[in-house]
Amino acid sequence: MADFVDIKGLSGEERRRLLSEIEDRIARRIKDGLLSEREVREIEEMRLRPLPDILDVQSVYDGTLFDRKDG
What we know:
Elements lengths: L11 H20 L5 H9 L6 H10 L10
């Protein structure tokens, strides 16, 4: 599994520890039959997108707070 965690506030060691924990949990779920290898590959290939509510917040503030009325 390629490194997918890019959190600026984590040190290299913390990032490696987090990745290791995630990989262990995935391996456990595969072993328990909760996930298949195919499902894991599909999840790996998913493109992440921002949550809809975050997109909504940006559209509320666009042009509302930052437009100059005196110009």
